[in-house]
Amino acid sequence: MNGKGIYIWKARNCAGGSLAAIVQACKLMDLDWVAIKIGDAASDYFRSFTDMAAAVAAFRAAGIKVWGWHYIYGGVHFRKDGTFYVSGATPAEEAQYAVQQVQKLGLDGYIIDAEREYKVYKQGERASQFMAGLVGIGVPMGLSSYRFPNYHKELPWSAFLAGCQVHMPQVYWGPGNAVRDLDISIQDLSALKVLPVVPVGRLYVGDGYAWPGPGVSEIKAFMSRAVERSCPGAFFWALDFLYLDTHGSAALRAERAKTITDFNWGHGTTPPEAEYPETIGYAEVTANVLNVRSGPGIEFDDMGDLNKLSQWYVFRKSGDWVEIGLDTWIRTGPGLADLHMRGK
Questions:
Q1: Which residues contact 210 (CB under 8 A, 6 or more apart)?
Q2: 0.90 cut: is pTM over it?
Q3: Is the separation of the CB atoms in 49 and 34 below 8 Å?
Q4: Which among 36, 32, 111 has a CA at the least distance from the CA of 64?
Q5: pLDDT tens track for 123-146
Q6: What is the pLDDT of residues 2-16, one digit of tens each?
Q7: 3-262, CATH topology level
Q8: Is 255 exposed, middle or buried (0-12, 13-18, 19+ CB in 10 A)?
Q9: Where are the domains of the chain?
Q10: Beta strands of the chain (E only): which ranges?
């Protein structure tokens, strides 16, 4: 999941609902991937597109990868007064639905959208049941939930993350806080489990803030910080709001889209700093998570069991580049989600 992406909620909100126009809009924004909704609970009524197979084929034809996102309830629903009741599809049934949809559509990955329904009533037990039902789904999985886990400790983070390969926090910042919120989110999530972080940024107006929505400088700062923090990619909620935002002018919405378009993520290119002095340290890498293949001037001792940590020689100090996949690079350094430095 390298580079830029975007959520799509309801296709009818975007470009008049035209699949061809939506794909073209994503192509013009130079997006690498999109996340389309496969359903709510165990129902396909709330899918992004009426013809999901046609949508996946159209994006693929345009060179855009497709992940599926899924809002889950686990049988819990809230009333308007804030109380909840237990009814509907079970966690196991939701998981079964997810596996069927992902495999039927041939998606590139699966995103779990778990929120307040999993903060109450046997939440750990229900989350574990849901994750157990996803075994064999056959694609990478990410958890997209609250940006600050420390403020939402009721959510069974560990149960969900046990089966995930990527953090996808909803970093819907308030005015001026795009970089700060991203940094806190990465810190909190990395403390739970060390995984790559692909954050979700804000394109919508709401949450009680009296402002015209995210400015172009904030959107650019969010993406720039994600690159600095070695996030392999980032995406936004949602394409719909480049069309629906009634608080901002059409010109502002166009500027937001252009900011995403113009941002060069830089994946697929050889990074700078071509000189590599003698080895003075090493890092430990979770090989099965990062799929480490090679590095500039790097030799490894013994890969051995990919489920174990392998030692990789790196060079100089924090900030050196390491290739973790074909044309995919990250920076080393203490505190990053991808690598943890140790002195030697």
A1: none
A2: no
A3: no
A4: 32
A5: 999 999 999 999 999 999 999 999
A6: 999 999 999 999 998
A7: TIM Barrel (3.20.20)
A8: middle
A9: 3-262, 279-343
A10: 3-8, 33-40, 65-71, 76-78, 84-86, 109-113, 141-143, 166-167, 200-202, 233-237, 279-286, 309-315, 321-325, 328-331, 340-343
